[in-house]
Write a structure and sequence with these properties.
This protein is an all-alpha fold. The chain has a single domain, classed as Up-down Bundle (Rhopdopsin 7-helix transmembrane proteins), CATH 1.20.1070. It contains eleven helices and three strands. The protein has helices spanning 3-6, 24-51, 58-87, 94-127, 132-135, 138-164, 181-185, 193-226, 231-260, 266-294, 296-306, and strands at residues 11-14, 91-93, 173-174. It has a three-stranded mixed β-sheet.
């Protein structure tokens, strides 16, 4: 091995958007607007729920956690991306890269579990309406929320440690606008078998269990709704879970394309980067819009808070 390959990598170069220098400032403006909309929209959900006592129930506690996840998700990657677009600087330190990867994986893992808990919450609300507040108590809701965050961050500790225990002595060019496991592992000059198997095994177990929980919950929900004879009650039951179902489809759709439909083709790498932006940039902006459009109680509380 030559001297170059023996040199330890101490920083990475994020080249995800460097192939579009002519639209750098246009992208900065666009993503800056999207980021601020994301913050304002999610705060617009947090404030009314926090100030309106009648919204202090499990369903809205879960919605608060989803809004926090959206804020953290976009704040993990977008500010660094905006700084790089504005200054033309594309580097990120090894420690900064590890921290970004850790937070991103933790937030994504937490969202997977939270969507499963929200699906279970809707299942109880639709299928066991009269016993909802006996089954989903505030204390149990706190337990479920604490468990989702703990599981998400524990999962990320394992992935981050296995990824950054590798040796990086080849190229330091990360083909993405943020640090993520597949792109970082691809730069290793040591065996990546353990890291890849660990990511596949743990990600498969956690992801599959959360997905199955969501899928089974909605199977029962849809079956129950279809058996409701009253058209008014059927519409009301569907409206209570439509927003969450749309968010679930949006999350899993972008996640599947981001992590399971990758390509080594240079043309398709651009497509992969654009799809990853759907998860990291666009989805956190859309989630609060989806919920606020369909939730009259949150909109009413926000209007009262603003004095409208």
């Amino acid at each position: 091995m030559d001297a170059y390959n023996l040199t330890r990598v101490i920083q990475f170069i994020l080249i995800g958007l460097s192939d579009l220098p002519e639209v750098r400032y246009s992208l900065f403006v666009a993503f800056s607007i999207i980021y601020h909309i994301t913050l304002v929209r999610n705060v617009g959900i947090l404030l009314p729920i926090g100030t309106e006592k009648k919204l202090h129930i499990p369903m809205y506690y879960l919605l608060v956690n989803l809004s926090l996840i959206d804020i953290f998700c976009s704040s993990t990657t977008v500010p660094k991306m905006l700084g790089n677009l504005l200054t033309g600087e594309k580097s990120i330190s090894l420690v900064g890269c590890a921290l970004q990867l850790y937070l991103l994986v933790a937030i994504m893992g937490t969202e997977v579990f939270l969507l499963a808990v929200m699906a279970y919450d809707r299942y109880v609300a639709i299928c066991f309406l009269l016993h909802y507040f006996l089954i989903i108590t505030n204390y149990r809701c706190v337990q479920l929320m604490s468990g989702t965050w703990a599981a998400g961050f524990l999962n990320s500790v394992i992935h981050t440690m296995s990824t950054f225990s590798l040796s990086f002595c080849k190229s330091n060019l990360v083909n993405q606008y943020y640090c993520d496991i597949p792109q970082i592992v691809a730069l290793s000059c040591s065996s990546t078998y353990v890291a890849e198997m660990l990511a596949l095994l743990i990600g498969g177990i956690f992801g599959t269990s959360a997905f199955l929980t969501t899928l089974i919950s909605y199977s029962y929900i849809i079956s129950t709704i279809l058996n409701i004879k009253s058209a008014e009650r059927k519409h009301k039951a569907f409206s209570t879970c439509a927003s969450h179902l749309l968010v679930v489809c949006l999350f899993y759709g972008t996640a599947i394309f981001t992590y399971m439909c990758r390509s080594s083709s240079q043309n398709l790498l651009v497509r992969d980067r654009l799809i990853s932006m759907l998860y990291g940039v666009i989805t956190p902006m859309l989630n609060p819009i989806i919920y606020s459009l369909r939730n009259t109680e949150v909109k009413g509380a926000l209007r009262r808070l603003l004095g409208c």
